Amino acid sequence: MRSTLVSQFGDPRQVIALVDAERLPPGPGEVEIALCLAAINPSDLIPVTGAYSARTSLPFVPGFEGVGTVSRVGAGVTTLKPGDRVIPIGASGLWQQYLLRPADWCFLVPDDIDDRQAAVSYVNPLTALRLIEALRAHFGSLAGRRIGVTAAGSAIGGMLMKLISGEGAEPVGIVRSERSAVRLAAETAGEIVVADEGNIPSPLDFDAILDAVGGPFAGDLIGQTLQPGAAFIQYGALSGVPVPIPAIQARADVRFSFLWLRTWVHAAGRPSIEAAFAASFAGLRSGLFSSRIAQTYPLSRLDEALAHQADPKRDGKLLLDTRC
Ligand SMILES: NC(=O)c1ccc[n+]([C@@H]2O[C@H](COP(=O)([O-])OP(=O)(O)OC[C@H]3O[C@@H](n4cnc5c(N)ncnc54)[C@H](OP(=O)(O)O)[C@@H]3O)[C@@H](O)[C@H]2O)c1
Fold first, then answer.
1. Ligand 1 centroid vs 137 CA: distance in angstroms?
2. Within the chain, which residues score under 50 in pLDDT?
3. CB count, 10 Å around CB of 131?
């Protein structure tokens, strides 16, 4: 079967190989899924670079998000049958034609959610919901709070802007270019500012920041924009650089935390994850969690897809069609 493999850490465009892999039968408790679409997310590529080498074993098949149809079931599986459309989660491995996964880690997709929506219904919607929960845990009610969202032009950034508005709070989308600001303004309500390292417009003040950029830019925001008692939640590092420790140490009056979906998923238990998927599917129906899809590539043209993913002018999510 068509598959991909990372055998050494490095630049994703250099080290993710297209390979022909053996198709194995499902073991007890497992199902085989004939995958159809998988997303390309920043969080798929970061482990490939070796950024999390302490908790990433080589070799591995990348891809954390996608959708497919159960093709075979192993002994003892009673909850799924061939033909069921599912989202398999809990480990990487979706950038290939067939995937073996414990039935307990597969979640049924309602019939009215199409494959393209289902393929992006997991990582960003569930993380956005967790981030709002984390803000609620800090503030109680979010009503009236000013909340900054960095990299607001990203797929999850747009979701966060809408969710924050829905809580009665004031979202402020922070983007790095006028081009992103124009695109975001067409899609979401709320204030939008263009800012980058060494260039924070003033006055800018926040009760909380949800940060996916990190690096010196996050340090500037922490030093210059957070109110006493504010929350700073980091959930990404698109700059490739951590938040500077001195910036954190200088703000004893701010609550700092990290949020990783993966940590929650492995602790939450199936009923909580099912409830989160139900919220995601509802958000897909209403448009709250819709993601712009820029292009779908056959898996066999992975090199083109990865080149497009690295293009700063990319205008939406890329999907891989794992069937061809
Ligand atoms: N912690 C978790 O569990 C978790 C879960 C989901 C996502 N995330 C993180 O959330 C972030 C966004 O993910 P996504 O899937 O929404 O990404 P995406 O849709 O691929 O969007 C990435 C966008 O972010 C903006 N961007 C990239 N680098 C930037 C930088 N250095 N400074 C400012 N903006 C930058 C760019 O938008 P413009 O072209 O508009 O500037 C880029 O198009 C990633 O860091 C990802 O790892 C984390």
1. 24
2. none
3. 24
Q: Which CATH class is domain 124-261?
A: alpha beta
**For residue 232, what are the β-bridge partners?**
209, 256
User: Which part of the chain has CATH 3.90.180.10?
Assistant: 2-120+291-321
pLDDT reported for residue 53? 82
CATH 3.40.50.720 location in the chain: 124-261
Rounded to an integer, what distance in angstroms lies between the CA atom of residue 10 and that of residue 321?
Answer: 24
- Cα distances from 145 to residues 30, 62, 137, 208, 225, in angstroms, run 46, 38, 14, 8, 14
> What per-residue confidence (pLDDT) applies to 189?
87
pLDDT at 84: 98
Q: Is the beta carbon of 31 within 6 A of some atom in ligand 1?
A: no
For ligand 1, atom 9, name the residue with the nearest CA: 236
Q: What ligand 1 atom has the least distance to the C-alpha of 157?
A: 16
- What residues contact residue 303 under an 8 Å CB cut-off, 6+ apart? 13
- The fraction of the chain above a pLDDT of 70, given in percent, is 100
2-120+291-321: CATH topology is Quinone Oxidoreductase; Chain A, domain 1 (3.90.180)
pLDDT tens for residues 126-154? 999 999 999 999 999 999 999 999 999 99
